[in-house]
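User: Last request for today: this protein with zinc ion, please.
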Amino acid sequence: MKKILISFFFVFLLMVQPVKAQPLVHLAFLIIPETTTATTNMNMNNTPPPSSSGVIFVDQSKPFTITVDDGYSRPALKKLITLKKQYGASFTCLLFPYGAALKDNEDLFAQLINLGCEVHNHTYHHIYFRNTTAEQQKEEILSTDQAIEHVYKLAKQKRPNIKYFRPPGGFYDLNTIRICKENGYRIMLWNVITEPNGKNLSVDERARYIYSAPKGSIILLHSKERDMDALSKALPVLLKHYGIPAH
Ligand SMILES: [Zn+2]
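Assistant: Here's the final one, the structure of the complex with zinc ion:
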């Protein structure tokens, strides 16, 4: 009886505890690798196991995926446009602007779509889903969904069939998982970030995180000029490492 009660307690705990995205920054990436070239020798066994919620941390179907969050800085978005023009389809580029930033910079996002980037969902007001109701979460996700539809119309492009949601700060709970499933979204987090623990690193330090990412990494950048400059330095290294021609 005691065992049953204890089990029940733990099931109860699981139900009421918010699911904190984990890891926000995987321990393997807290230390900048010593090597100065792209490497795949990191222990991929440290990669978080696939979770039953379907949350994505890595994508082994690609050498690497560049993701750019937020989208408020026009100078940074312009730098990304220049990079995308230079490197074309040689790298996958997923953009996660929050709705308000997307609305403000629709013209640039439409250009990025036409250059082969995809636009996905990052809430409307960049809300952390920690003490939010299911209704608030749904409103944040669906209002951004409409803004995304609009920018694809502006770009005269078809929206990709697979929709991704990236919760700001990596915070989500069981409601988020349910709302995403009901609305055809998959939750995409990351395994490499250029601002571990919110550190404001130099361009070179950020570039090292990018080009040292193990195969299949989902690399999180922000729409900041510093991150775009780091990407500019790291891309040639990564493409050379994987033998991908810049086209
Ligand atoms: Zn964000």
